[in-house]
Amino acid sequence: MTEKEQALAELEKIRSEALAVLADVADEEGLEAWRVAHLGRNSPVMGVFSGMGKLDKELRPLMGKAANEVRQTLEEALAEKRELLETAALQNMLTTEKLDVTLPGRPVDRGRLHPLTKVLRRVTRIFGDMGFQVYRSPEVETDDYNFTYLNMPPYHPARDMWDTFYTKRDGVLLRTHTSPGQIRVMRERAPEPIRAILPGATMRYEQLSARSEIEFVQVEVLVIGKGVTFAELKGTLDDFARRLFGEDARTRLRPSHFPFTEPSAEMDVGCFVCGGEGCPVCKETGWLEILGCGMVHPVVLQYGGYDPEVYSGFAAGMGIDRSTLMRYRIDDIRHFRNNDIRFLRQF
Amino acid sequence: MKVPITWLNDYVDIADLNLEELAKKMTLVGLEVEEIRLVGMPMPPGEKHEFKYAGLSWPEDKFVVAQVDEVMPHPNADRLVLCRLNDGNEEIIVLTGAPNLFEYLGKGPLDKPLKVAYAREGAQLYDGHQPGKQLTTLKRMKIRGVESFSMICSEKELGISDEHEGVILLDDDAPTGMPLVAYMGDAVFDVDTLPNMVRDASVLGMAREIAAATGRELHYPDDSLTATGKPIQGRAAIQIEDPELNPRFVLGLIEDIKVQPSPYWVRRRLNLVGMRPINCIVDATNYVMLELGEPLHAFDYDILLNRAGGKSPTIITRTAQEGERLTTLDGVQHTLDAEMELVTDTAGALSLAGVMGGEESEVTSSTTNVLLEGASWNFINIRKTVSKLKINSEAAYRFSRGVHPALAELGVRLSLKRMAEWGEGQIAEGLIDNYPNPPADPVVELSADWVNASLGTEIEAQKIADILSRLEFTCEVESDTIRAQTPPHRLDIHEGVIGQADLLEEISRIYGFDKIPSRRLDQPLPPQSSSEELVMEDDLRDLLVNLGLQELIAYRMTSPEREARRFPPEYQAPEVDYIEIQNPISVERRVMRRSILASMLEIMEYNSSLDQRLALFEIGPVFNPVEGQQLPQEKQMLSIGLSGLRHKTTWQGGEPEVMDFYDLKGVVEGVMQGMHIAGVTFRAGEHPSLHPGKTAEILIGETVVGVMGELHPLVKANYEMEEAPVMLAELDLDAVLGAARILFDVEAVPTYPPVLEDLAVVVDEVVTAADVENVLRLGGGDYLAKVQLFDIYRGKQLGEGKKSLAFSLTYIAPDRTLTDKEVLKLRDKIIRLLDEELGASLRS
Ligand SMILES: [Zn+2]
Q1: Residue A156: band (very low, low, confident or very high) from pLDDT cuts 50, 70, 90
Q2: Residue A328 Cα, ligand 1 centroid: separation in angstroms?
Q3: How many contacts (CB atoms, under 8 Å) link A and B?
């Protein structure tokens, strides 16, 4: 064997031995040890470079090239192995790290609006989109505003329609409906046209039960102008009902009586629970009564400061509590003012 | 009011309409049908029904009219009898215990067979022996050795009334073998009549509405009288003192009447309406009241004669003397006042006009001659009387809502006619009629043009007149104009523009709301403005929700005692005036609230054990009476309540932290920042409900707008609450919203890097964090962009009564990067000021 053959064989041995060891390396630590052992300063291949001086001058370029090739091979093998190990480690992590995704999340303490506020907002938004403005009027009212100006002089039989809480102050009561606000808005606005809604608390003398409350939220709707028609009352309330109860909502008006409107009507909407087939919510009738309405009575216009020969208008009043009960199929109206947190946090 | 449809059918032909169709038509003209009780009639066809049904149907093959030809003894039982009965097909022996058949026992074959309601085997009916309405089916069985499979029915068993004392004995002309439902099957509509439709609180009134709605003819009852007695003239007289209170008074006389039960069909109708049959005289007045809506009153004529000392009686209507007494026929003695109207004679009070008769002149079983009153009264006067005396009656129900005087005469005629028919009396010729104050029955003029402009319709003048004519208005049409005369049965039609609105209601209702088109508003938009406070109030609600709080809506009604719980036991609360309710539902809810904190505390008490973390708010009014003002100030307030854990516990455990003053302060600060309110400061304050060392006043500028703090332990002891401390805040909403800014300047986002520095300041305990911060800001000037307290330390090295507050300071210049030298200069200034202002040193 010539010196050349011997040197090349030596290099080949370094290469094959190093690769053989590398094949067995299993982790990052082993890889580093291998790098020090086979590519480090004291590694055999580096030894070839440093022993180059002992070689025949003729052989040196050839051996230098060969040793470089071995080193390059080993470096490439190292890089390849490193990538392999990293991929394996990632794979290992992805297969072993496993959460129980059914464990509950960390609760965020969320605030909530009262359900009555939620429904009231929907209602005010719908009317707001139609150009109605929101007003507030007193909850403790005078007898005049609650009754007389609404065409119910003292001892008028229609006063029986409302079970009234009177106060110990002469002529002062807890308003039984939001309608006194009609007069207040009219007196403030006359002779301008009006599109107003008045939400607020109202009070009626009832025995507290699952179906009746002493305090509840109502919204009054009022339109005054020249030549306002019953057809516009229908159209406005139809639009409202469709937006509150859904595009397919059917409505109907039934004649009714309120002293402050004439003609007066009650609006029913096709039961959205059963679709009109009959269910406990609509008491099997297929209809839900949602509001009372009518053309503003001439006496009320007069009290509000509008000449009934020139102006006309319509008004409507709806109970937010009732609508909320129906919307969420709540079994007991008293939940609203009990404020049981177990009830409220469902909204 | 309850109305049997066979009775309606007397006045308007509705036999071809099924119950569903009829009820729907009634509902759509304003007669709301709340329930339909079947009394024999079958359910209308179809699976689904819009109306609510109750009651019992009588299938034709199971229930028939039958005749009892003989009543025979039962071989083994004294309390039972056997009836030889013919049901039109065959002869059957039927067993019964009905007491009203015992009088026929042992009389052999009856000359005049008894007509009865007979239920065959398999019939389903109500159990007469069970309370209420229990269904049972007739089965074949042996009772005391005699086979029984069918039954002679009582009213209770057929669902007519609760009467089960005996079986029904039908009128003699009942045709044997006829299905019972064909003979007397009925359905009773329970109709909610509107307060302005008292004219419909009668069968005829409802029939009129149905006639109008269907375009059918209305048949008035026949009121022709056959007078067989001496003329009434000269045998009674009427004096009306105040025609305003008593516009009309009519008297009729009937003599030699037999006080006997009315025919069965009359008694059945009265029972179906819920009125107990008494005798033919009382029944005739009640029947006509239900039929026509005119309450009538029957006097025993002989008692009146007696009271007048044998002379012809004079009926005087007048108001009572103050303190005058009258015992009404329900046995109650009333003390009257000078406003109450009476019917009297020369001897004194006879009855409370339009409300109830007196005991003394009442018709009894020994009455033979009846003086019949038909009158009309001022409805407001009757209402006052009824509400003052807390008395009610069917008559008062109608008179207190207004009954047209025209009905007085018709009522007397119809009632006399019926008494003669049912009690075999002799009607005295003529009536005595005193009618000093007839109503106007206004003529209302309106144009079709105006009607259509009001409704948005296109109805011709003639069609409008037709609609009104169906309601018995007398109409004249002249091109576009309709002149409508109010019919003499209604008092709710006014003159002029109000009368026009009255008629518009009638026209639209009968025309049909469903035929009026539905159109969007075609009106100019009013001048637009927003109610800023309401908009901001809603913004604030959203803000509070974003801060993690739950909104509440509390009762306005409370009691002073409930509100006083928010004070410590020994606390002398200043006397306050409340809006007091005259007729509260309970003493617990007898005033309007003055404290929103009291509401919050009650709700926190209720929920205390129901959740680990309570974070609540309410926006609402308190009601403060104001000297010299009729209405109270309705002051809008905001309350906030926090208690329990800062964060709810989770499966990961960790030490649970309880919310304290600074959690509440964070919320309040969040509110102020969120509403962009400037100049908010806090300072130690006092409040009777709050812990004296843990109370802060909230200021905007110089104005105190609210208070916050931890609930006083002595107050907490007034409530049943969990251990965790309770944090409360109360703010004046108007003051807060008044300071809120919708428009505010946004600071530029810094372009140059900030310089950060920490500074630990040692001060005396009495010095507050706010004091130190004020000095820091004073020294740092505009360059000091942010001051943040990050640590508080107390310890031996600092000495007694000292504390160290560590702040992180952020310096920034808008136009350059600050140099170390500049920052050092600011720092030196701050240190000097701290020393000068607070005697503070830096912690080394
Ligand atoms: Zn339904």
Answers
A1: confident
A2: 13
A3: 273
pTM, two decimals, is: 0.86
- Test the B interface: residue of A108, A109, A279 with most B CBs within 10 Å: A109
Residue A282, classed as helix, strand or coil, is coil
Q: What is the mean pLDDT of chain B?
A: 94
Q: Do A234 and B516 touch (CB under 8 A)?
A: yes
Could you please state the CATH topology (level 3) that the domain comprising B443-511 is classified under: Phenylalanyl-tRNA Synthetase; Chain B, domain 1 (3.30.56)
Reported as a single tens digit per residue, the pLDDT across B496-552 is: 999 999 999 999 999 999 999 999 999 999 988 878 899 999 999 999 999 999 999
The dihedral built from the CA positions of residue B251, B257, B262 and B266, taken in this order, carries a sign that is: negative
Q: Give the end-to-end CA distance of chain A in Å, rounded to a whole number.
A: 93
ipTM, interface predicted TM-score of the complex: 0.86
Q: How far apart are the first and last CA of chain B?
A: 92
Q: Are strands B135-137 and B229-231 parallel, antiparallel or unpaired?
A: unpaired
Residue B310 is inside which H or E element, if any?
Answer: none
Query: Shortest CA distance to A253 belongs to which of B196, B49, B28?
Result: B28
Structure tokens at B476: 């004249």
Per the listing, tokens 């019953």 go with: A230
Q: What is the pLDDT of residue A79?
A: 94
CB distance B323 to B317 below 8 Å: no
What is the fold, at CATH topology level, of the domain defined by A115-344?
Answer: BirA Bifunctional Protein; domain 2 (3.30.930)
- Cβ distance A114 to B582 less than 8 Å, yes or no, reads no
Percent of chain B with pLDDT over 90: 85
Best to test chain A binding among B452, B505, B652 (most A CBs inside 10 Å): B505
Over residues B468-501, the pLDDT tens digits come to: 999 999 999 999 999 999 999 999 999 999 999 9
Q: Where are the domains of chain B?
A: 2-56+188-214, 59-184, 237-434, 443-511, 532-739, 755-842
**In this predicted structure, what is the pLDDT of residue B638?**
98
Residue B716 has pLDDT above 90, yes or no: yes
State how far the Cα of B449 lies from the Cα of B455, in Å rounded to an integer. 10
